[in-house]
Amino acid sequence: EVQLVESGGGLVQPGGSLRLSCAASGFTFQTYALSWVRQAPGKELEWIAFINGRGDSTNYKDSVKDRATISRDNAKNMLYLQMNSLKPEDTAVYYCAFGQSRGQGTQVTVSS
Fold it and tell me: Residues 33-46: pLDDT tens digits?
């Protein structure tokens, strides 16, 4: 059974940073590409970052491209998202995604 458990969210002031983590299990982690997606209040789910299985190819939504870094540790079955220069519009529940599977999400709130 695929399990994805996100953590690391919280309340941060505009301009601040957060590092989100996702612990994965139930599949051969290093074989598969993974993504981070987010859902803001009242909005649809939005893809924001992708990383391939080896971790040597990444892609980002334009709105976060210069502020986000997706990474993974295949030895630990962990996925990460470093977000810098956070803006109020980054407020959302953040999920790691494997195919159609997502975890329970971690809330990120950017507010002064």
Answer: 999 999 999 999 99
